[in-house]
Amino acid sequence: MTPPDQSMLHPEIERLDRGEIQAIQRRKLAALGARLARSPEWVAHFRKGGVHPRDLADPQALARVPFLEKSQLRDQYPFPLLTEPVEAVERFCATSGTTGLPVLFGFTRADLAMLAKQVARQLHCHGLRAGDRAYNGFGFGLWVGGLAFDLGLAELGAVNFPVGPGRSDLVVEWLRDMKLKFASVSPVFLATLIRTAREKGIDPKSDWALRYAVIGGQSVSRAFRDELEAEMPAGFKTYNTYGTTEAGGPTVSSTCDHSHARDEMHLINEDTILTEILDPDTLEPVGPGEIGEIVVTTLDKQASPVVRWRTRDLVRVSDLPYDCECGRKGMPRIGRIIGRSDDMLKVRGVIVYPSQIEDVVAATRGTVKEAWQIYVDAPGPAPKHIVVAVECERAYNAPREELAAIIERALSGRLGLKVPVECHPEGTLPRYEAKAQRVQVRK
Description:
- This protein has 443 residues and is of the alpha/beta class.
- Helices cover 30% and strands 22% of the residues.
- The protein contains 13 helices and 20 strands.
- It has helices spanning 11-14, 18-36, 40-47, 70-75, 109-126, 144-156, 168-177, 187-199, 204-207, 222-230, 257-261, 354-363, 400-415, and strands spanning 91-94, 104-107, 133-136, 159-161, 182-185, 212-215, 237-244, 249-254, 264-266, 273-278, 291-298, 309-316, 333-335, 339-340, 345-347, 350-352, 367-376, 386-392, 421-425, 439-441.
- The strands form 6 sheets. Strands 4-3-5-6-7-8 form a 6-stranded mixed beta sheet. It has a 4-stranded antiparallel beta sheet with strand order 10-11-12-14, with no helix packed on it. A 4-stranded mixed beta sheet has the order 19-18-17-20.
- Helix 10 (222-230) runs parallel beside helix 12 (354-363) and helix 12 packs across helix 13.
- It is globular.
- The chain starts with 10 loop residues before the first helix and ends with a strand.
């Protein structure tokens, strides 16, 4: 018998084939339906599609369940579709609330225990072990990221330094002095830490002991990821993680050593989160190699479960989703997040994703990789004009106008669209500790 892969924390689940994973999902869908049948709000929601929660005992019924949108949750403020009494909720987390009130999601004690196991599975896959020293740089408060990684690190028995984002002067010294091996951090803040370290005379390549980092909170291009890794000690890897507050945290997908090279992630918790990848227009399943929107159903969550939650996040399904050398045959691979269906810009008939801009900026010598913006002339998905603003590194030894022209040519080749580029001195544009707001209206 083949010995279990040492990167698997839960080999009894992670080594299952796709049919065995789907059998778990079918059983848990039926149990979820029985729980939701006790909620008048959920029964009313299912009725819109002509189904009842108990119909989930038939897995074919899931395709008839109405999709869940953020506007529906806001309509039920303050505790939308909460399936447990408030008194049974141990903690609430919330969406970012960039427009309107944040939406609250409850976690019972059992939900938090499950979240710990979901995140620990990812961290073990990346190589983290008991006793390893870790910097948790994800945000705390109502945001689920910092909480989730605190729980996952504790589940593994790692030594946690939960500083959160910010305090970069302190963090760059702690990374050196405390020989921290792991970091969970947004990609833009990791770039800020690298730059801050250099300014303080600290060389990340030789003075830090970091071996790997989980980067999340926003999509990151492969070019930007490669730039980050090139600044770090030999062998350092950045592992993508993806999730949403609605899905229960950063729990939907993450990278193994093999999928890292392909810029892909496994749907690594498919035994507790059922993931559909659907065409955002037809809402039908897409196949290998195709782009679709992530739609999630939380199978085990007690408080605040979701069924067919439309994340609006777009990914490309791997050409060979079930063929990974790590052995996770039942946990298909997807690419990194391309963008959001509601962040997509259609400029004079050409579709533009912010990630395409980042690819070009990150691949261009002389730019400050974490500092760039897209300025549009009007809110909404169809501006008439966009301008890309970048920063030029202080050490760049040519005129800024020349760098702007290089990026303009690269964007034209990538997008098939002429986009004006402004090149500013280093330190001009906004910096972000967590999720970057790349698209802004400028009158």
